[in-house]
Write a structure and sequence with these properties.
The structure holds 2 protein chains of 2 kinds.
Chain A: E1 2-7, E2 13-19, E3 22-29, H1 34-62, H2 72-77, H3 80-112, H4 119-139, H5 155-178, H6 187-206, E4 209-213, E5 216-219, H7 223-241, H8 244-258, H9 265-279, H10 294-306, H11 308-320, H12 326-329, H13 333-356, H14 358-364, H15 368-398, H16 405-438, H17 451-456, H18 459-488, E6 499-502, H19 525-533, H20 538-542, H21 546-570, H22 586-597, H23 612-618, H24 653-661, H25 663-666, H26 677-680, H27 688-697, H28 705-726, E7 732-733, E8 736-737, H29 742-752, E9 789-790, E10 814-815
Antiparallel strand pairs in A: 1-2, 2-3, 3-6, 4-5, 7-8, 9-10
Helix pairs in contact in A: 1-3, 1-4, 1-18, 3-4, 3-8, 3-15, 4-5, 5-6, 6-7, 6-8, 6-9, 6-21, 7-21, 8-13, 8-15, 9-11, 9-21, 10-13, 11-13, 13-15, 13-16, 15-16, 15-18, 16-18, 22-27, 22-29, 24-28, 24-29, 27-28, 28-29
Chain B: H1 2-8, H2 14-35, H3 38-45
Classes of the chains: A mainly alpha, B mainly alpha.
Chain lengths: 819, 61
């Protein structure tokens, strides 16, 4: 190669490099490490906040009255239902999110041999993301939530996320790719592309809502469809926010720390495409035995099981990268964190497919088993990979030695012991719960009919979790101290190395494709073309074409998604309607919104699975048609408290009133906190009207409610209040009329839940029946008096499967009224 | 029209169709990966551990 120096306009030296007939302009550049320092700092701060919030919510389960001495309005902000989303959002989007950004900003520049395209976009991204986190930390305790797990943030914040994620972050990343000086995109960059593209798609489509104010909106999806969208999003948030970017991190930082190239580049190609293609289908495994069509669940299970393959391919590729360097692991805390992190990745990606198998899921779902699984991934994989990266980055970013390697070693051991102390007891708690819920005596009756008994049996395990979580927090605190001390030892001025590289040329010529041996042979031209394609090294071509690579990744994600989403939305028999299921009354709708706002779904499910153990405990199993007016769906994913799908009529309204005030008094041993604030807060009847209009806009067939919602709500509130007074309550509570309290609306909703299946309407003649589009699928409830009421739902395409260890349960024609 | 087409689909076979699509893509990717030459994969996998700028004309092809 021959080089010629050329003076550039900005004073930087550039060179004209020539190589035979080709030439390249050499450019000088430096990396933007300031933005990486900012994201690393934010990662440490939010890591502390997120894990501390985790310990706090863990404490609230063993000490439910921890904040009972505070003013009701204050304790409301600190209830488990409102704080749990703070913990999950802080851990996922604040801690892991900032870690992702630090990793991407650092590694992308090095892998592209190029500074990030825009300093300004980087700063907008950083401060925009921190503002979003702060907004989440403020709104969630206030009860401003969409009520969907990991998608709780309301629409103004969702809009901000879209702008910051795609506009600032995505724009900056893709422009950096465009301007890169390294021809081939390394595997880490592929994972970053998949992350940015897929999270955008998931976020936008799961958060389509109709707003009725700055802090409240209704999902455009309802019931079963909302559930499918939510868990398509929820599972892939795990996949594309907590897995793919961390795999990119692994593929970059592990070789750097081990000073060895990745074990197998070819395996990384197979790992990437298999993971992207498979993950997106797996969401429905969160909904086994629910009212989701059975074909969709089988879909989810099938692809979840297949995920074993790429996940373990990635783990093996990571661990074998350390071949010949295992001696370093004993002395380097960075590699220790990486090794344990990758091992936890293997563990949790083995367990995930296992939990997606229906027979296992029948036991594990709604129990703490899922919580243990999630935390082995979050604390072990995401946490430890982040800590390893930070310890590797600190000396490089602050251009000084790490303040204390010993402290980093202590962090490693405390963290590891903390994780084990957390997950082992919670695995035991989950399996205990699952077995107790389904335990039957010799007469076929529930062995533990009192739900509280099953909760109390696992409280000791919850205490162990508090201890394990606390150790983990102490480890994070040690890292924070180490980081601050390292920062204090930084030089007065950072050195900024300047690199030189050639600008990529437009007219890049690939290696010519060798001629086909079939040319001239008596075969079809298609065979000749196919033979040439097979010789193209086409994946190698993709690796230097970011636009094509992005399009292919997007196509893989979207095609897979459509396979599940289109049938669920367009084939009516997937969501059979039930004629007796009516929209909520104005007061009930307001009550439902309080249910969502308080985060009740964090402890209570609304989905009775078709299993003997569940139908005995909770009543008739849930049908898809029962949820057509539920926006958002509230099936939940966990049962710290009992299922509420058929709560209506189980208890008196006065019982509910008293229960909100002091749950343990009505239900000894309950870990539910007091919701006394609901008894004194005033319900704003006038703003119910716009809720009705929004529900009507989305398809609820309201009539009189469209003009008289407030008056109708007041009338019903008076009736509920009268019922409470007749059952032993008082007209006023703490000087305020109970009929105006928010609790009345919530009680109205609770008393409605699950009752429509048994609704007895005035008989109508067939000729008076209004024709509807889906009348063929609507079968009106036949009125018989007295009960049982015959309720016929159009049969699901495939009958729900009974639990594997229970005798088959036939869907009954005559459903007894729940007692 | 799209709705009509979708409604006529027999979605009970979707699992099998999806599996076939994945299988084809997977085989294509595996085959494509195995086509890569050793010197190319060695160079690509060394990109992260090369902090210095790689000469674009060496080993790239």
């Amino acid at each position: 190669m021959k080089e010629v120096s050329v003076a550039s306009a900005n004073g930087n030296a550039t060179r004209q490099a020539t190589n035979g007939s080709q030439s390249a302009v050499m450019e000088s550049f430096s990396y933007n490490d300031g933005i990486v320092r900012m994201f690393v700092t934010a990662t440490i701060i939010w890591g502390l906040v997120g894990t501390l919030a985790g310990v706090l919510v863990a404490l609230l389960l063993v000490l439910p009255n921890l904040f009972s001495g505070l003013e009701p309005n204050i304790s409301a902000l600190l209830s488990f239902g409102r704080l749990r989303p703070v913990h999950t959002n802080a851990a996922i989007f604040a801690f892991a999110g900032n870690a992702i950004f630090a990793a991407i900003y650092y590694s992308t520049q090095r892998l592209c041999k190029c500074r990030m395209w825009s300093n300004a976009l980087g700063l907008l991204h950083f401060w925009g993301w921190q503002a979003i986190i702060v907004a989440a930390a403020v709104t969630l305790p206030l009860g401003i939530t969409q009520g969907k797990e990991y998608a709780e943030l309301e629409w103004p914040i969702d809009l901000a996320i879209a702008v910051v994620w795609l506009g600032f972050f995505g724009g900056n990343f893709f422009m950096t790719l465009w301007k890169r000086r390294e021809r081939h995109m390394y595997v880490a960059l592929w994972f970053y592309i998949a992350t940015i593209v897929t999270v955008t798609v998931l976020h936008v489509f799961n958060n389509l809502v109709v707003p009725i104010g700055l802090g409240k909106s209704y999902s455009v999806y309802a019931g079963v469809q909302d559930a499918l969208m939510q868990w398509w999003y929820g599972h892939n948030a795990v996949a594309f926010f907590l897995t793919t970017p961390f795999l990119g991190l692994m593929y970059y930082f592990l070789p750097k720390a081990a000073e060895r190239p990745v074990f197998s580049y070819k395996l990384s190609i197979i790992h990437f495409w298999s993971l992207v293609f498979l993950y997106i289908w797996a969401g429905p495994h969160h909904l086994h035995y629910t009212a989701l069509p059975e074909w969709a669940c089988t879909f989810g299970m099938l692809f979840s099981v297949m995920l074993w393959m790429p996940s373990w391919g990635g783990m093996i590729n990571g661990l074998l990268t350390l071949r010949g360097a295992w001696n370093k692991v004993t002395s380097d805390p960075v590699l220790k964190f990486f090794v344990v992190g990758i091992t936890f990745y293997g563990m949790s990606t083995f367990e995930g497919p296992l939990l997606s198998v229906k027979s296992v899921n029948a036991l594990s779902h709604y129990t703490d088993w899922t919580i243990a699984h999630v935390h082995s991934g979050a604390l072990g994989w995401n946490g430890f990979m982040t800590f390893g990266m930070i310890y590797w980055l600190l000396p490089r970013l602050y251009q000084t030695k790490l303040w204390s390697k010993t402290m980093a070693e202590w962090h490693f051991w405390l963290g590891t012991i903390g994780i084990l102390l957390y997950i082992v007891p919670i695995y035991a708690a989950g399996i205990t719960q699952g077995l107790m819920w389904r335990a039957m005596d010799d007469l076929g009756r529930m062995q533990y009919p009192n739900f509280v008994e099953t909760v109390q049996s696992i409280v000791p395990f919850w205490w162990a979790r508090v201890l394990g979580g606390s150790l983990y927090v102490v480890g994070v605190l040690m890292m924070a101290i180490n980081a601050v001390a390292t920062w204090l030892n930084r030089p007065s001025k950072y050195e900024v190395p300047v690199y030189t590289a050639a600008r990529l040329e437009r007219g890049y010529q690939d290696v010519p494709i060798p001629p086909s041996k079939l040319a001239g042979a008596p075969v079809l031209e298609a065979a000749v073309a196919l033979d040439r394609v097979t010789k193209m090294d086409w994946h190698r071509r993709w690796e230097r074409l970011p636009l094509l690579f992005t399009v292919l990744t997007t196509a893989a994600v979207i095609v897979a998604s459509l396979f599940e989403i289109i049938p669920t939305f367009l084939i009516r028999s997937n969501v059979p309607t039930i004629a007796s299921v009516k929209p909520y009354t104005p007061l009930e709708l307001a009550g439902r919104d309080i249910y969502v706002s308080e985060g009740c779904y964090n402890c209570h499910s609304q989905m009775i699975r078709p299993m003997i153990a569940e139908t005995q405990r909770y009543g008739e199993y849930s049908k898809a048609g029962e949820f057509v007016y539920d926006r958002p769906f509230q099936w939940g994913s966990r049962r710290i408290g009992p299922d509420l799908a058929r709560e209506g009529g189980r208890q008196s309204s006065f019982w509910h009133w008293e229960h909100f005030n002091n749950p343990a008094q009505r239900s000894p041993g309950s870990v539910m906190p007091s919701y006394g604030h609901l008894l004194v807060e005033r319900l704003n009847f006038n703003e119910i009207q716009k809720r009705i209009h929004a529900a009507h806009f989305l398809g609820a067939p309201y009539e009189q409610e469209l003009t008289d919602a407030a008056a109708m709500a007041r009338t019903q509130a008076e009736a509920v209040a009268a019922e409470i007074i007749a059952q032993g309550g008082t007209v006023s509570f703490e000087g305020k009329l109970i009929k105006e309290s928010t609790a009345i609306a919530l009680i109205a909703y609770l008393q409605r839940m699950g009752k429509d299946l048994y609704r007895v309407d005035t008989p109508v003649t067939p000729t008076a029946q209004p024709a509807t589009d889906n009348s063929a699928e609507q079968v009106p409830s036949t009125v018989t008096d007295p009960v049982p009421v015959k309720v016929t739902e159009p049969a699901l395409d495939k009958p729900a499967e009974p639990a594997p260890d229970k005798p088959a349960e036939k869907a009954p024609d005559a459903v007894p009224m729940p007692q | 029209m799209l709705k009509d087409v979708i409604c006529k689909l027999d979605y009970s076979n979707f699992e099998e169709i999806a599996l076939v699509i994945f299988g084809l893509c997977f085989l294509a990717i595996v085959w494509g990966a195995t086509r890569l030459k050793r010197e190319a994969t060695d160079r690509f996998s060394s990109i992260p551990i090369e902090d210095s700028v790689v000469d674009p004309w060496k080993g790239g092809k």
